[in-house]
Design brief:
This protein is mainly α. It is built from twelve helices and five strands. The strands form two sheets. It has a three-stranded mixed beta sheet with strand order 4-1-5. The protein has a two-stranded antiparallel ribbon with strand order 2-3. The longest helix has about 50 residues. It is globular, with a radius of gyration of 20 Å.
């Protein structure tokens, strides 16, 4: 969103790339709200909508997909329209846009969760490390050893760098407050419903496809950012050779490029919901260790500084 014209006086609201650094700075300063986070409330609302619209167990897949699509529309359309109206308000609009980006970005929260795993591993408290990594990954963590915990954490940091940081910033720049609201809520629905299991393979289809669509370009920009901020040639090679092998069309390039940038080997077999999944390798080099969690955090932080540099430069040119 390069700029938006106020309907009342014809003046120009601040460009999104001038507001984005403020929202990111708020996240770095304040972190995630401890209470009353809007995404938590939205998740509860989505759970109620699922109860209302999921339908009986014998429902055909086609009808279940239509119900899932209706659920996504019912949840996202009012939120996007409300954000659009609020953004057009004088004074309130820019403030709400900054607040919306702050609530959508989770850079500090991601770092703190990863550091909790790292610290527990460094102190050889495996049970505490498993509990900590279980808060940021969806795989079964009960029997993970130290190396597997390190790998899972690095993968989560790299993948969530796109979902929780760069994707939100991208849609804020492109479409302002409505863009970041719809993006983050769609991402939340995918996290709730985007599973290929018996319950959600049909009902969650629309949420998963929408999340794939919204993340397609941000994921590739994130992968490029990782490559530029790490070992570029290895990241590019891993991205080109391995990115398309991953089950997710967006997580694959992000994690492959990130693994290559760190010169690590990620992926491999993992247990999900009691079932062993044979995942392809990503990147090159040795498996991840506890110290590589810090390296992954640093890579994401460098990529964020790169984006901030581009945003601030654009803001200065606009000014």
């Amino acid at each position: 969103m390069p700029c938006a014209r106020r309907p009342d006086d014809g003046q120009m609201m601040p460009a999104a790339y001038l507001l984005a650094p403020i929202g990111i700075a708020l996240d770095q300063w304040l972190g995630e709200p401890a209470r009353l986070h809007p995404l938590v409330g939205f998740g509860r609302l989505a759970g109620r909508v699922e109860i209302w619209l999921y339908g009986p167990p014998a429902l055909p897949d086609g009808a279940r997909r239509r119900r899932g699509l209706a659920s996504v529309v019912c949840l996202l359309l009012p939120a996007g329209l409300t954000a659009l109206v609020i953004e057009r308000l004088p004074v309130i609009g820019p403030c709400a846009a900054v607040l919306g980006l702050y609530l959508a970005v989770g850079a500090r929260s991601l770092r703190e969760h990863a550091e909790a795993v790292r610290d527990a591993l460094a102190e050889q408290r495996l049970d505490a490390a498993r509990d900590a990594v279980g808060r940021i990954v969806s795989r079964d963590v009960r029997h993970l050893d130290a190396e597997q915990i390190g790998t899972a954490t690095v993968e989560s940091v790299l993948e969530n760098g796109c979902d929780a940081i760069f994707g939100a910033v991208f849609w804020f720049i492109l479409a302002g407050l409505p863009g970041v609201v719809v993006y983050r809520l769609a991402n939340t629905l995918d996290a709730m419903w985007g599973y290929r299991n018996a319950r959600y393979h049909a009902f969650g289809w629309a949420a998963a496809r929408l999340d794939d669509l919204l993340n397609w370009l941000p994921a590739r920009l994130t992968a490029l950012s990782y490559a530029l901020c790490g070992d570029f040639s290895t990241a590019r090679r891993a991205w080109r050779r391995q990115g398309s092998r991953w089950k997710s069309p967006n997580a694959g390039p992000v994690m492959a490029a990130g693994a290559g940038a760190l010169r690590l080997r990620l992926g491999g077999p993992a247990m999900y919901h009691g079932q062993l999944t044979d995942r392809p390798d990503l990147g090159e080099g040795r498996p991840a260790k506890a110290g590589d969690i810090t390296r992954a955090i640093t890579l994401v932080q460098r990529a964020l500084w790169l984006w901030l540099g581009v945003l601030i430069s654009g803001g200065l040119l606009h000014a």
